[in-house]
Write a structure and sequence with these properties.
Radius of gyration: 43 Å
Shape: elongated
Largest sheet: 5 strands, antiparallel
Number of strands: 14
Strand order of the largest sheet: 2-1-5-4-3
Order of helices and strands: HEEHHHEEEHHEEHEEHEEHEEE
Strand content: 15-25%
Bound molecules: adenosine-5'-diphosphate
């Protein structure tokens, strides 16, 4: 072979080698692409299988929680969990065998539910959370709380539903409602009874008071010292009874929301001076140092003067009742641009912190025993609270056991909210 032919062969051989190595590289790339795809596919398969495991777990957990689950295709149930078989009483084979899911639904609910299902399947926006009922296999009505979603598998939309049996909850709600209704009736009956009894007590009480006063004024003739003492006792007892009857009547009116306020301009300073004067003799008898601390000459307010006087008297009576002889009771007034604040401070027995949150509740007493040292029916403070609050004011207490108490209330200076209106415990 000559030199030329040899070098041409060599070139040809080199070209072949280059082509071969190019092919090899292409083959390698294709191989690695294939490997990558295979790997991606494996990853996808494992992700799908993981997802399936998760869905299965959710499905089972829902069953464990008693949440029924089913899928409806058209009208037929195509998938159902164990909890729904328990809720309905039917086996899953029986449920799959039904022509329509609606066969489970009581007749009176069927039309409405069918309409809702059709609207949902046609893509309209209907509530996806509602209550419905099915008839259990044994014939009793089961109330369900249902949440539904439309899912698109392939071309057909399906309805996926999660159902919870709320029959027992509904029954309890109904029982509670009935009980509440009954309690309201009893409450109204009690208010009516209190109102009637207090009205009925008033007439004989007025007779007792009237004739006692005749006797005290010696209209029926002279009395011996002993007789005058007995008459004074009767009078004091009748006065206490009168306060109780008045409280009962106010209580009944506040319960019924029919207590009428008569707000007009009235002087709070004058009210406080008047009450102080009225209590001075009692303070002397009880050996209590009563002080009035009012620096203003007057404090005109739009208020129901009689009712505010009743509040002051009530708080002051309590201060006297719970302060032993030798103690002090102070009645004071502080004014600023926004409000007038009245405080009644005593050096009496005080109140434990555990009682303070309930003190203004109806009938609440710190010592509810029948052997307690002081009389009362637990009406004064709730009545005072309702009266102050219906004026747009606030009421409160600071106290410590054995350290005395300060009861206070404040009234807005620009007048009461409910001027000539009827008010009650729920008026704010
Ligand atoms: P009551 O007619 O029973 O006194 P109130 O509603 O006026 O009813 O008072 C409720 C309870 O609050 C009282 O029974 C008493 O235990 C407590 N209380 C009220 N005022 C005072 C006070 N100044 N000091 C101590 N305890 C008081």
């Amino acid at each position: 072979m000559n030199k030329r032919a040899l070098s041409s062969r060599l070139r040809h051989r080199k070209a072949l080698l280059r082509a071969e190595s190019r092919e090899n590289a292409q083959l390698k790339a294709a191989l690695s692409q294939l490997q990558q795809r295979l790997f991606d596919r494996e990853q996808l398969d494992s992700a799908i299988s993981e997802e399936n495991t998760v869905y299965k777990a959710i499905f089972d957990a829902q069953s464990d929680l008693g949440e029924g689950f089913f899928i409806v295709d058209g009208r037929k149930i195509v998938q159902v969990n164990e909890a729904f078989t328990r809720i309905s009483g039917y086996s899953s084979a029986e449920l799959h065998g039904l022509d329509s899911f609606l066969d489970l639904v009581p007749e009176d609910e069927r039309a409405g539910l069918r309409e809702r299902m059709d609207e949902r399947l046609s893509g309209r926006d209907v509530h996806d959370h509602y209550e419905t009922a099915i008839v259990h296999r044994d014939g009793h009505r089961v109330i369900l709380e249902v949440a539904v979603k439309v899912i698109h598998l392939g071309t057909r939309p399906r309805i996926l539903a999660i159902a919870r049996d709320i029959t027992e909850r509904k029954r309890m709600e109904q029982a509670l409602q009935d009980q509440n209704h009954r309690l309201q009736e009893l409450d109204a009956l009690k208010s009516c009874f209190i109102s009637t009894v207090s009205h009925e007590l008033r007439t004989p009480l007025a007779t007792v008071m009237g004739y006692t006063e005749f006797l005290e004024e010696r209209i029926g003739g002279p009395l011996t010292g002993e007789q005058a003492h007995y008459v004074a006792q009767i009078h004091a007892g009748a006065q206490r009874l009168e306060i109780l009857v008045d409280d009962l009547l106010d209580f009944a009116r506040l319960e019924a929301g029919t207590l009428r306020l008569n707000c007009e301009e009235s002087d709070l300073v004058q009210t406080l001076r008047q009450v102080d004067e009225e209590f001075t003799p009692l303070a002397q008898v009880k050996g209590i140092d009563l002080q009035l601390r009012v620096s203003e000459a007057s404090a005109p307010l739009i208020m129901d003067g009689m009712r505010i006087e009743q509040v002051v008297k009530n708080l002051l009576s309590n201060a006297f009742k719970f302060t032993p002889p030798g103690g002090q009771v102070r009645l004071s007034l502080a004014l600023d641009d926004a409000e007038a604040r009245v405080e009644i401070t005593d050096s009496g027995i005080g109140i434990g912190a555990q009682h303070l949150p309930f003190l203004f509740d109806r009938f609440y007493q710190v010592d509810p025993s029948s052997t307690r040292a002081h009389g009362g029916a637990g009406l004064g403070l709730p009545i005072s609270k309702a009266l102050v609050e219906s004026h747009g004011g606030r009421i409160g207490v600071r106290s410590q056991e054995k350290q005395g108490s300060t009861f206070w209330f404040s009234l807005p200076r620009d007048g009461c909210v409910h001027r000539q209106e009827t008010v009650g415990f729920h008026t704010t």
